[in-house]
Design goal:
Oligomer: heterodimer
CATH superfamily of chain A: P-loop containing nucleotide triphosphate hydrolases
Distance between the termini of chain B: 44 Å
Shape of chain A: globular
Helix content of chain B: over 70%
Order of helices and strands of chain B: HHHHHHHHHHH
Distance between the termini of chain A: 32 Å
Structural class of chain B: mainly alpha
Strand order of the largest sheet of chain A: 6-7-8-3-9-10
Number of domains of chain A: 1
Number of helices of chain A: 9
Largest sheet of chain B: none
Shape of chain B: globular
Largest interface: A-B, 43 and 37 residues
Number of strands of chain B: 0
Largest sheet of chain A: 6 strands, mixed
Helix content of chain A: 25-40%
CATH architecture of chain A: 3-Layer(aba) Sandwich
């Protein structure tokens, strides 16, 4: 974990030390969606993916946002990654507006999503080098940094030259983590990074996230539907339900507030619905303009 | 180093990254590219053989065959450029890397120009192989050919082609399903009005007006003159290409920015599936 790339630009000069790492106020995002019951040719209706959400994340903090599929977690991550434009409110990262100062934000943020997403015919080393070039890392720099970062995530060195398509899902996710960390982001957005992994890979990835936090000055926003993962990794936990952030507090405060023992019970107390039963209202790619 | 100098350096490294990635992918897909090359040669032969069936005397037949071959070669060259440019978005969407590329601190101009630069390099190599392979197969004689001038004019025209290609690369952002194919519509229309296999003068007058703003018109005319008559680089072909190049790239970039903003507003800047 000691060998993350040296940033090629002075990131600290872009950081407002007094500003929170993430500051979101009344953020709204609405997509258009057809009601599947009304048939294929029914008029699309507005569907709020994020409904006036407000929260802040302090520098160095790890915050988990829990929510089922379609709750708006990925929409939030994509807004903070400059991949979406909001419909209202504002989001600032280290004091910089996500929409108006997108180029500055892009130097500060990186992410890991549920899908590893690589050029499948290229090797892990080639994919990482390619990604690193966008952040100004030269071949001389990546020749050293890529093997080191891959070693730090437990990637076998003899498989560095293998095509990504030959790697297991767990291996690919490790490479995705390496890609995100290679550029030394000060804000790391993790969008269900362990979904679909086997238990061992899941634990390894979680261990790595802990190590990143303890050894680097990184702020982490973890979006997940795994309550146990959120509880073990995060300082504070929020539940995003159908685009609305119900709360964002330390887990013990959540349990105390609702007088319950588990986060599942807290979700039920807050929404009146079982966490597992959620997803019935999941977006359907075929019917919805986008999925969140 | 000043912040500006660091940023410039980073953008250049990013540009290199785009080209480097395409080199990696070309190596991995080399056999497929070879198969595609065979198809392009076969397709070009079907066009150039028309000269043999025209019933002309040998010299005229040779001139017609050369005229058709230059047209087919430029068609294939432009095809590569438009294919690469539209795939800027389409390929990354298919691989799933689009979100990572578009959230990276790489300026869109550098991103798209890097893609275009590789397309031009790759397209020039293919165009040369295609031209000489078909010329050898058919038995075309071009003793006066000024290949240097033809090559130089193609390279100058490529800057304009990249600019137009940038405009078409936005199409898959607007329509993930059909946008990539629309790039070929742009290619076909551009060549149809530029006299790809015929003189511009045979077209209706309104098409001749459109031909004036097509960079392919000047590349086709200049390259035919260089290969058939041995003409050098003619200023009459160069200056329109330079003007179109100066205009096409910023216009293309502006069009792309509008498309990118539309995609971000409607959530289309995402992987497929």
């Amino acid at each position: 974990m000691s060998s993350l790339a040296t940033p090629t630009t002075d990131l600290t000069s872009r950081l407002d030390r007094n500003a929170p790492a993430v500051e979101v106020r009344d953020l709204r995002k609405t997509f258009q969606r057809r009601d599947r019951k009304a048939g294929r040719f029914a008029r699309k209706r507005p569907w709020p993916a994020l409904d006036d959400i407000t929260f802040t994340i302090a520098r160095g903090e790890c915050v988990a946002i829990l929510g089922q599929n379609g709750s708006g977690k990925s929409t939030l991550v994509r807004l903070l990654s400059t991949l979406l434009i909001d419909d209202g409110g504002e989001a600032r990262i280290f004091g910089h507006d996500v929409d108006r100062e997108a180029s500055t934000i892009r130097r500060l943020v990186n992410r890991v999503s549920v899908e590893a997403s690589f050029f499948k015919k290229m090797s892990a080393a080639e994919n990482l080098s390619y990604a690193a070039r966008f952040y100004g890392m030269t071949p001389r720099q990546t020749r050293v940094a890529v093997p080191e970062i891959l070693a730090s995530v437990g990637f076998p060195p003899e498989r560095r030259g293998e095509s990504m398509e030959h790697l297991s899902r767990g291996m690919q996710q490790k490479v995705a983590l390496a890609r995100a960390l290679l550029t030394s982001p000060v804000l790391l957005l993790l969008d269900e990074p362990t979904t679909g992994l086997d238990p061992r890979s899941k634990l390894e990835v979680q261990e790595f996230i802990r190590a990143v936090r303890s050894e680097h000055d990184a702020t982490i926003l973890l979006c997940t539907h795994d309550m146990a993962e959120a509880e073990t990794l995060a300082d504070r936990i929020g539940i995003l339900d159908r685009g609305r952030l119900l709360f964002l507090e330390p887990v013990e405060d959540v349990k105390r507030r609702f007088g319950v023992q588990t986060l599942e019970q807290a979700f039920f107390a807050a929404t009146g619905r079982e966490f597992e039963n959620e997803g019935q209202d999941d977006e359907d790619d075929e019917y919805r303009e986008v999925f969140a | 180093m000043s912040e500006y100098a660091i940023e410039m350096r980073n953008q250049l490294v990013g540009l290199f990254g785009i080209v480097e990635r395409n080199v990696y992918l070309t190596k991995r897909y080399f056999l497929w590219d070879l198969a595609f090359m065979v198809w392009t040669i076969a397709n070009t032969l079907t066009i150039v053989f028309i000269a043999r069936s025209a019933g002309l005397h040998a010299a005229a037949e040779n001139t017609l065959a050369t005229r058709l071959l230059v047209g087919a070669t430029i068609w294939a060259f432009l095809g590569i450029i438009f294919e690469f440019m539209t795939e800027t978005v389409a390929w990354e969407r298919w691989e799933g890397t689009i979100e990572y590329t578009f959230m990276a601190p790489l300026s869109r101009l550098v991103h798209l120009f890097g893609q275009g630069a590789f397309a031009v390099l790759y397209g020039l190599i293919r165009a040369m192989i295609l031209f000489f392979a078909v010329a050898a197969f058919i038995g075309i004689h071009a003793p006066q050919a000024n290949y240097g001038a033809a090559f130089a004019l193609l390279a100058i025209g490529s800057i304009s082609f990249i600019g137009v290609g940038i405009m078409t690369s936005v199409l898959p952002l607007i329509s993930p399903e059909k946008g990539a194919q629309l790039g070929f519509v742009a290619q076909g229309v551009m060549l149809a009005v530029s006299g790809v296999y015929y003189q511009v003068s045979v077209m209706p007058e309104w098409m001749q007006w459109i031909a004036k703003i097509s960079p392919a018109t000047y590349v086709l005319r200049g390259d035919r003159n260089s290969i058939i008559h041995g003409a050098g680089l003619a200023w009459v072909d160069v200056w329109p290409l330079l003007i179109i190049a100066v205009l096409a790239t910023p216009i293309g970039l502006a069009v792309f920015r509008v498309g990118e903003r539309h995609a971000k507003k409607h959530g289309k800047l995402k992987r497929s599936g």
